[in-house]
C-alpha cells in the first residue's frame, strides 16, 4: 500500500471562541482557558459586489478558513486543487427553501436555489480566488472531516500535488435543528503538500491509516462538547496535536465506529 | 493514470430499468420524458420520472433510509445482477477493500419538503417520523448502498451538483491507485423533488416541452431522475474485446459564476484536455462525445465552443438528455453507462428531439444513431458553481 503522507503547510480555523490558528493554539493546548463565544465570520475579499451580497454564513466560513490557510502557507489559492468537506452544507438556506415550498406560492429566488448546492462554497471559492483548478465537494455525515482528509491526502500522494482541504459546518435553524442539532459554525482548512519538497511553512507531517480504535476525545469539557456536536470539529484532536507539536497518533471519527488514525510528526 | 475496468455497470432511468431496456430505447431513439405530473408540482414542463420507485420496499433493517432517492438506488442495484457482481468482489477482496463513491445533488430532500408541510401548527416542529440522517443527509445514499451491499470500505458522497457522479470516478481511481481498496462501487442517484423543479423554474431554465439539446429553438432542461452504477477494478491479465475501460478523468473549475457557465467554455475545455492528458490520448483518438448538452441556451453554447476548440468539427457528439432528461447528480454516471453500452454495442447514439441543429454551434451533432465500432469516447458533465468533469472510456479491443 502507498504511504498516505502529507505535509501541513497552512492551517485556518474559525469556530465558537476560535478566531484563526495562531490565536487558537494556546486554547487548544490548555495554556489559556477556552471560552465558547459566537463564531465571528466576515465577508471575504475577492468577490464581485453582487456575489458578496449573496453569501450565507456557511460560505463565509469556508472561504474564511481557506484564505487563512493559504495565506499562512504562502500559497497562491488560484493554483491549489481543493476538497470541500461538509456534512450537510447550508442548513439555513435549506430551511428557507423547504419553508417556501410548503406555502402555496412556492416562490424560490434564483440566488437561493443556486446557493442550495452542496458545492456552493467550492463555487464561490473558485470565483473569489480565480482558481480553475479541480475542486471536490464531499460529505460523509459525521465522518465528513476524516473522509475529506482521506480524499485530500490521497490526492496529494497519487497526483503529487498540493491540495487545500476545507471542512466546515454551520448551525441548523429550527425546526431542522431538532433533527440535526449542529449548534454553531466551525471550519478548519489545511494546505496539504507532498512530502519531500522543501517548505519553510511546514507545521507537521501527517500519515494516515485505518484503525479499529474509537475516536480520541478532547480533555477540556467545552472543547469535547464542540468536537462531538459539529462534524468539522471532529478535527480537534488532530489540531491539538499540531498545536502542541509532539509526535503522536490521533484517531479521528470515521465510518462504522472505526477511525482514521493520523500519525502526527512535528515540523522540527 | 492507471486504466481501470468497468467490471459491471447498470443504469435505471426514465428510458428503462437496466442495460437491455436502455439499449433498446437508445437503438429505437425512444425518449422517456412526459409532461410533469410529479407530486404536487404545478409547472409547465416535462420531466423524466422513473417507473416503479413507489413500489420499491427497503428491507426492514434499513427502514430508516426510506425515501425516494434510496428506493431508486435499490431499484438500480437490483438490475443486471449488479449487487451479485459486488458480492463477488467482496468474496475476492474482502468487504473492507471495496469502497463506495456516489454522486447526488439533492439526496432525500423530498422527504424534508414533505415534512415541512406536516409541521406542528402550534410549535412548528417537524413530524416524529422524519429522519434526517436516512433521507436529506447528503451521505444517506452511500450509507444506504454500503449497508445494502454489506460493504465496510471507505465511502464518500460527492455532491457537486451536475458533475457529482462523473467526479466519483476520480475519487475512486485515486483510492485504487493508492491501493486503499481493490474495487469501487461508483455511481450516481438523484431523484425528482420540488427544490430542483421550482428552483430551475425560478431560473427560467425548465423546458416547456421535452428538452432539445443543441436545437436552434432549445428552451431549457427536462429534469429527470436516475440511478447508475459501475463496479471498478484494476485491469486483469486478459480482457474480452468488448470490455469497457476507464481511461481518463479530467476535472476543472470555471471561476466565473454560480449558475452560468463561462461563455467561452474555458473550464469545460480544461476538463476535456485534462481527461485526454490523463488517458494519454489526443482529440483525434476520440470517436464519440457524449455532451453535457442540457438544452439551455448558455450550456450548449459554451460547451460547443469548448468542444470546437479541442476537437474542431471532426468528432461526432450528441446529448442523450433528449431521451433521458437531465438526471442532475446522477447524469455523469448515467451517461458513463450509456457510453459503455454504446462502446459494447458498436454505435454512437443520437440526440433525440433535436429538429434544427443550431447553426451557431459549430460541432458535428448526431441526430441519427450512427452504427459502427467506436473505440474511445469522452463524456462531459458540468454543474452549478462552475464544476467540470470529463471522462474518457474505451473498449478493450
How does this structure look, described?
The complex is a heterodimer of chains A (268) and B (397). Chain A has 268 residues and is an alpha+beta fold. Chain A has one domain (4-265): Peroxisomal Thiolase, Chain A, domain 1 (3-Layer(aba) Sandwich), CATH 3.40.47.10. Helices cover 35% and strands 22% of the residues of chain A. In chain A, strands 1, 2, 3, 4, 5, 6, 7, 8 and 9 form a nine-stranded mixed sheet that branches. In chain A, β1 (4-15) and β2 form a beta hairpin. In chain A, α1 (21-29) packs across α10. Chain A is globular. The longest helix of chain B has 15 residues, at 297-311. Chain B has one domain: Thiolase/Chalcone synthase (Peroxisomal Thiolase, Chain A, domain 1). Chain B has helices spanning 18-27, 68-77, 82-93, 109-117, 140-149, 164-177, 194-202, 266-279, 297-311, 321-324, 331-345, and strands at 4-13, 16-17, 34-35, 46-48, 98-103, 155-158, 183-190, 223-224, 226-234, 244-253, 288-290, 316-318, 347-348, 364-365, 370-371, 376-383, 387-395. In chain B, α2 runs parallel beside α5 (140-149) and α8 packs across α9. The mean pLDDT of chain B is 98. Chain B is globular, with a radius of gyration of 20 Å. Chain B is an alpha/beta fold and 397 residues long. In chain B, the strands form three sheets. In chain B, strands 1, 2, 5, 6, 7, 9, 10, 11, 12, 14, 16 and 17 form a twelve-stranded mixed sheet that branches. A three-stranded mixed sheet of chain B has the order 3-4-8, with no helix packed on it. Classes of the chains: A alpha+beta (268), B alpha/beta (397). β4 of chain A pairs antiparallel with β6 of chain B.
Amino acid at each position: 500500500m502507498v504511504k498516505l503522507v502529507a505535509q501541513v503547510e497552512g492551517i485556518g480555523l474559525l469556530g465558537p471562541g476560535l478566531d484563526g490558528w495562531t490565536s487558537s493554539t494556546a486554547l487548544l493546548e490548555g495554556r489559556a482557558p477556552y471560552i465558547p463565544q459566537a463564531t465571528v465570520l466576515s465577508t471575504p475579499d475577492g468577490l464581485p459586489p453582487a456575489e458578496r451580497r449573496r453569501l450565507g454564513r456557511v460560505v463565509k466560513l469556508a472561504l474564511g478558513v481557506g484564505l487563512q490557510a493559504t495565506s499562512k502557507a504562502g500559497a497562491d489559492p488560484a493554483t491549489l486543487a481543493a476538497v470541500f468537506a461538509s456534512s450537510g452544507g447550508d442548513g439555513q438556506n435549506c430551511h428557507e427553501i423547504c419553508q417556501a415550498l410548503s406555502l402555496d406560492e412556492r416562490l424560490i429566488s434564483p440566488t437561493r436555489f443556486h446557493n442550495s448546492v452542496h458545492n456552493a462554497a467550492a463555487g464561490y471559492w473558485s470565483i473569489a480566488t480565480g482558481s480553475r483548478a479541480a475542486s471536490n465537494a464531499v460529505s460523509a455525515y459525521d465522518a465528513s472531516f476524516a473522509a475529506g482528509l482521506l480524499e485530500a491526502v490521497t490526492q496529494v500522494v497519487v497526483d503529487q500535488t498540493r491540495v487545500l482541504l476545507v471542512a466546515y459546518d454551520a448551525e441548523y435553524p429550527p425546526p431542522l435543528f431538532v433533527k440535526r442539532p449542529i449548534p454553531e459554525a466551525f471550519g478548519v482548512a489545511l494546505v496539504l503538500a507532498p512530502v519531500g519538497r522543501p517548505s519553510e511553512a511546514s507545521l507537521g507531517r501527517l500519515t494516515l491509516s485505518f484503525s479499529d480504535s474509537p475516536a480520541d476525545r478532547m480533555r477540556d469539557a467545552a472543547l469535547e462538547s464542540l468536537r462531538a456536536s459539529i462534524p468539522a470539529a471532529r478535527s480537534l484532536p488532530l489540531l491539538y496535536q499540531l498545536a502542541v507539536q509532539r509526535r503522536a497518533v490521533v484517531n479521528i471519527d470515521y465510518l462504522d465506529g472505526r477511525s482514521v488514525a493520523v500519525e502526527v510528526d512535528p515540523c522540527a | 493514470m492507471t486504466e481501470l475496468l468497468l467490471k459491471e455497470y447498470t443504469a435505471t432511468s426514465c428510458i428503462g430499468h437496466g442495460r437491455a431496456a436502455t439499449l433498446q430505447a437508445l437503438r429505437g431513439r425512444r425518449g422517456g420524458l412526459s409532461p410533469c405530473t410529479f407530486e404536487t408540482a404545478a409547472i409547465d414542463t416535462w420531466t423524466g420520472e422513473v417507473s416503479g420507485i413507489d413500489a420499491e420496499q427497503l428491507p426492514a433493517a434499513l427502514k430508516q433510509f426510506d425515501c425516494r432517492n434510496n428506493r431508486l438506488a435499490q431499484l438500480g442495484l437490483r438490475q443486471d445482477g449488479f449487487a451479485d457482481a459486488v458480492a463477488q468482489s467482496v468474496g475476492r477482496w474482502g468487504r473492507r477493500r471495496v469502497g463506495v463513491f456516489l454522486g447526488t445533488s439533492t439526496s432525500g430532500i423530498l422527504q424534508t419538503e414533505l415534512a415541512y408541510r406536516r409541521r406542528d401548527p402550534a410549535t412548528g416542529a417537524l413530524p416524529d417520523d422524519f429522519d434526517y440522517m436516512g433521507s436529506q443527509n447528503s451521505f444517506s445514499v452511500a450509507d444506504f448502498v454500503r449497508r445494502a451491499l454489506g460493504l465496510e470500505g471507505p465511502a464518500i458522497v460527492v455532491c457537486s451538483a451536475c458533475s457529482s457522479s462523473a467526479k466519483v470516478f476520480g475519487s475512486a481511481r485515486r483510492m485504487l491507485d493508492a491501493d486503499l481498496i481493490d474495487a469501487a462501487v461508483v455511481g450516481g442517484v438523484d431523484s425528482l423533488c420540488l427544490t430542483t423543479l421550482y428552483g430551475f423554474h425560478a431560473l427560467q431554465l425548465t423546458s416547456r416541452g421535452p428538452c432539445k439539446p443543441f436545437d436552434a429553438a432549445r428552451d431549457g432542461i427536462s429534469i429527470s431522475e436516475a440511478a447508475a452504477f459501475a463496479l471498478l477494478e484494476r485491469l486483469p491479465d486478459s480482457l474480452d474485446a468488448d470490455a469497457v475501460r476507464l481511461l481518463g478523468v479530467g476535472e476543472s473549475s470555471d471561476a466565473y459564476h454560480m449558475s452560468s457557465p463561462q461563455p467561452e467554455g474555458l473550464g469545460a475545455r480544461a476538463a476535456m484536455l485534462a481527461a485526454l492528458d490523463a488517458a494519454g490520448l489526443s482529440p483525434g483518438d476520440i470517436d464519440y462525445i457524449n455532451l453535457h448538452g442540457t438544452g439551455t441556451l448558455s450550456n450548449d453554447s459554451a460547451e460547443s465552443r469548448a468542444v470546437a476548440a479541442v476537437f474542431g468539427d471532426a468528432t461526432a457528439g450528441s446529448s442523450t438528455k433528449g431521451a433521458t432528461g437531465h438526471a442532475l447528480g446522477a447524469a455523469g454516471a448515467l451517461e458513463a453507462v450509456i457510453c459503455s453500452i454504446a462502446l459494447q454495442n458498436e454505435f454512437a447514439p443520437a440526440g433525440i428531439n433535436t429538429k434544427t441543429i443550431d447553426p451557431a454551434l459549430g460541432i458535428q451533432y448526431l441526430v441519427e444513431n450512427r452504427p459502427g465500432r467506436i473505440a474511445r469516447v469522452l463524456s462531459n458533465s458540468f454543474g452549478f458553481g462552475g464544476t467540470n468533469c470529463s471522462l474518457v472510456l474505451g473498449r478493450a479491443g
